Amino acid sequence: MKVYTGTEIVSRVDTKEGIVFTTRDRRRIRARYAVYSTGHEAQEISRNPNAKLLTTYALATKPLQEITGWHKECMIWETARPYLYMRTTGDGRIIIGGEDERIMTDEERASRLAVKKDILLQKAKELFPHLNLQPEYVWAGVFGATHDGYPMIGTQPGFPNSLFSLGYGGNGIVYSVLGAEIIAGLAKGRPHPGESLFRFDRKR
After folding, report:
1. Gap between the Cα atoms of 96 and 86, Å rounded
2. 31, 33, 148, 189: which has the fewest Cβ within 10 Å?
């Protein structure tokens, strides 16, 4: 397989043989099927009522000499709302995130960043008061979720030659594997036992 990064698609046409995409520089890509795994940006193509877009925040601390009092440095993910998640990195940093809010403009997100940084840092310090946590990078972005917490995988009306794998809800790494299995089966006419759980037209 060849991978072409930075290739912008400007139009798509469904045909009897499949689908034809046109790129910004007027090249054409023909395929029997297209798979969309573009996260929340897929909502710009077709807005689905099961999806909800949120603003999320995160920070990365400066590297620590030693991380103690954290069993095997396992990933922490609260079920609280708003939630908190924490994980370590290979160079000794701690990534802290959560505090999701309604979808905002870029300007609104930027104005909230300092406040959310302090909230996330304080929550981490409450769990690990003995660690000298100092933020080095802080960011905010758009986060895709669904009302039931499940991803959206499969087909949707209006896109006869397209398959979608949208791992919303913060479990994209797990759902990407499951999505690949389901989509490969759909393309080959093979049903998957979990297919109905992730349908785009499931009831809210």
Report:
1. 5
2. 189
